[in-house]
Design brief:
single chain; two-stranded antiparallel ribbon; 1% strand
């Protein structure tokens, strides 16, 4: 397990390293890294439901259509988008049964459905709330947003109700066909209409349970991805926009060391840490320093960790730098634990990025 902010710092470091050492253009480095991060969240979700094709398809679709909101998304907006995505997924049993009925008709001659449909809307509330006084979680979050955010949310859910079924078409049809094949093969002779009704009810109940699980996974993964990706964007954009002032500050604090003598990994870790301390007042200083030290230890050396700790600690104008073993560091660790996501605590080694 790893905190979303820790993961974001690692990806931001990867991007700055590519730009600095690999001489990759800024826009290209950011685009490649963000797309890779998006795919990480899409593909690794399949471990929640082994051999299930539904979660990766849903997450690949949602992360694709929401990529444009990352640079400007606020936490409240991110939460609503994740919740909206999960509510869209809850409509999937309707899409699935429609395809199940079509598959049954192809396999059982002169088939008539009675009742005609078992499907129903399973969201229990509109995906676009109409009443501000509703107590539904989605409505509460929706009306706390700006008009521009509400408009973007409406475009998202209306598009998803059309786009997601199309993205899952082959997967939905394949699953429905497999289930219909079993029902048709095992049908009694002479044919009993009650048998078909029982099978349809069982199929629908099974699909509702399945898509409830998928919905929970989608909400968690989309929320984690948006939170991580938006912080990556904030770190990289802010650091690059203020890089001259940041390097000047680092140079003034690293006595006896010229910037061109710093190892690139250490230099970029200091850049990220300096940006957080100077330009992100909402960050806890102890968290920033502790995370920078851990990044230095992981991707550079233990000595680098001490050096990074000293430089960033000096920026706080305190008598001594913050030690990783200090109470402040423990506070940082505690805060990080409150924001964990279910992804491995690793990214590709930085040395491999320039190959």
């Amino acid at each position: 397990m790893i905190s979303s902010r820790r993961l974001a710092r690692e990806w931001a470091l990867r991007i700055l390293y590519q730009i600095d050492v690999g001489k990759v253009p800024h826009t290209e480095a950011v685009a490649f890294a963000m797309d890779t991060l998006r795919k990480e969240f899409s593909q690794r979700s399949s471990r929640f439901e082994k051999d299930s094709p539904f979660e990766p398809v849903c997450l690949d679709y949602f992360t694709g259509v929401l990529s444009d909101v990352i640079p400007t998304a606020r936490p409240a907006f991110e939460k609503l988008l994740a919740l909206g995505a999960s509510r869209v997924v809850l409509e999937a049993p309707v899409w699935q049964e429609t395809r199940f009925q079509s598959a049954l008709r192809r396999r059982i001659p002169r088939l008539e459905f009675d009742p005609a449909m078992l499907t129903r809307s399973v969201t229990g509330t509109s995906l676009v709330p109409l009443k501000p006084d509703s107590e539904d979680t989605l409505a509460v979050q929706y009306y706390a947003l700006t008009e521009a955010e509400q408009r973007r949310y409406r475009l998202f859910v209306t598009g998803a109700l059309e786009g997601l079924p199309l993205a899952m078409e082959e997967t939905l049809k394949s699953h429905a066909g497999d289930c219909a094949r079993v029902v048709a093969k095992n049908r009694p002779t002479p044919f009993d209409p009650d048998y078909l009704l029982q099978q349809r009810i069982a199929f629908h109940e099974h699909e509702e349970a399945r898509w409830n699980r998928v919905s929970e996974i989608v909400e968690k993964q989309i929320g984690d991805w948006l939170r991580t990706a938006s912080f990556v964007s904030r770190l990289v954009t802010g650091t690059l926009e203020n890089i001259k002032e940041i390097d000047k500050t680092i140079s003034g604090q690293s006595e006896g060391w010229k910037l061109d003598r710093l190892v690139s990994v250490d230099h970029n870790i200091l850049r990220l840490g300096c940006f957080e301390l100077l330009y992100l007042p909402d960050r806890v200083s102890a968290v920033t320093i502790n995370e920078a030290v851990e990044l230095a230890k992981k991707y550079s050396t233990a000595e680098s960790g001490s050096f990074v700790n000293g430089v960033l600690g000096a920026l706080l104008s305190k008598p001594s730098a913050v030690s990783p073993q200090s109470p402040l560091a423990q506070e940082a660790e505690s805060e990080a634990e409150q924001d964990t996501i279910d992804l491995p605590d690793e990214i590709m080694e930085l040395e491999e990025e320039t190959e």
